[in-house]
Amino acid sequence: MTDVKTPAILPAAEKETSRPAGRPRDSDLDARIFAAALEIARSEGYARVSIERVAATAGVAKTSIYRRYRSRGEIVAEALVMESESRFMAPEGCLMELGTYMRAIVAAAGGDARALLQGMMADAQLDEVFRQHFRDRFIKPRRKMLAEIIRTATPRPVPQADLEMTLDLVLGALWYRLLAGHEPLDAAFASELIKAIRSQIL
User: Fold this and answer.
1) Residues 81, 17: contact at Cβ < 8 Å?
2) How far, in Å, CA of 41 to CA of 26, rounded?
3) CA-based angle 53:125:174, to the nearest 5?
4) Spatial CB neighbours of 200, under 8 Å, sequence gap ≥ 6
5) CA–CA separation, 15 vs 165, rounded Å?
6) What is the pLDDT of residue 16?
7) Who contacts 84 (Cβ-Cβ below 8 Å, separation ≥6)?
8) How many angstroms separate the CA atoms of 168 and 130, rounded?
9) Which of 21, 92, 151, 164 has the fewest CB atoms within 10 Å, counting from its CB?
10) CATH of residue 71
11) Is 21 within a domain?
12) Containing domain of residue 193, as a range?
């Protein structure tokens, strides 16, 4: 299932999080690489993504990709980060309302990103370097954003320990359902997650 040579992988990434090692960003080249990776992943499946195929689809040299990204997982993770930079923010950069945000991330996780997230999580278990990249660029920014939204929605200070446990419970439930597939990722589930947050600390 996993391509060992190119090990595999929903709000804006923090400025201080790590960027892939290599050459400085070339926005046009990155856009072509990201578009090619997502085209392959969404039309043929995440397992079919490789740096060789991305290079051929994007019409760029493999060396140009390897200077920027070390695995397919890094490419797909960065592509999803870039794709969703404005998707989970309210107008003018304000934080979304809690219910709106939770419904948005559940809908995104249950859509065409689902197979990509499953693939990235699988690769993250086999590749320690990518696992750290996935945490820094994808997991932590979304966790931080939800924490800020919860703090904004709460009329009183939230103890950090309570907040961290709530985040673990809610995001853990989301990832469990996404990976196990035992129940749907739908509006009803989003409503249950919102109720769980409110019952815990709001």
Assistant:
1) no
2) 22
3) 100
4) 162, 165, 166, 169
5) 25
6) 37
7) 10, 11, 12, 108
8) 21
9) 92
10) 1.10.357.10
11) no
12) 27-201
CA atoms within 13 A on the CB side of 169: 16
Say which residue the tokens 């490419």 belong to: 75
Q: What are the tokens at 147?
A: 């924490």
Spatial separation of the C-alpha atoms in residues 133 and 82, rounded to whole Å = 15
- The predicted model scores a pTM of 0.81
**Over the stretch 1-36, which tens digit does the pLDDT of each residue have?**
434 343 333 343 333 344 445 445 678 999 999 999
Predicted confidence (pLDDT) per residue in 58-84, tens digit: 999 999 999 999 999 999 999 999 888
Could you give the angle at which helices 114-126 and 72-83 cross, rounded to 10 degrees?
140
Cβ distance 185 to 106 under 8 Å?
yes
Give 102's DSSP letter. Answer: H
DSSP string, 111-159: TTTHHHHHHHHHHHHH-HHHHHHHIIIIIHHHHHHHHHHHHHH-SS---
- DSSP class of residue 110 equals T
Q: Does residue 1 fall inside a structural domain?
A: no
In a domain, 77, yes or no: yes
Asked if residue 6 belongs to a domain, the reply is no
In the block, tokens 């950090």 appear at: 160
| Exposed/middle/buried for residue 153 (C-beta within 10 Å: 0-12, 13-18, 19+) | middle
